[in-house]
Write a structure and sequence with these properties.
about 130 residues; three-stranded antiparallel β-sheet; mainly alpha; about 60% helix
Amino acid sequence: MEKLSPAEYRYMRVIWNHPEGITSNELYRPYSLTMGGQSTLLRNVVRKGYATSKHVGKQVYYYPVGTRLEYDRQVVGEQLEKKMGLPSLGALVAAFCGRDELNEEEEKKLEFLIQELEQRQKNDGE
């Protein structure tokens, strides 16, 4: 998928925090862009596939497609590959340790650590 611009990412952060949906009016409040500018940003976010929109009466509701974590992982993975030629987080960790790769057990430990941190994040958010 096409990467979000910094301004689009700011709007998506709000949308991701409202998986139940958020109105355009609620999205417009914290930002100083013109209404037309904000509408364009939100249309771009929908066009890029990161959110959907639904008209309910005079309101437009925006809903996230996927999570912020999924997006951030995708972007970081692409940057690792593009900037450093590393295909994965495991390869990055191995490089920090002066190695070419992690063995299977180390990869499993790393995945377990990531899952544990994700669970803590979910629990902190509740």
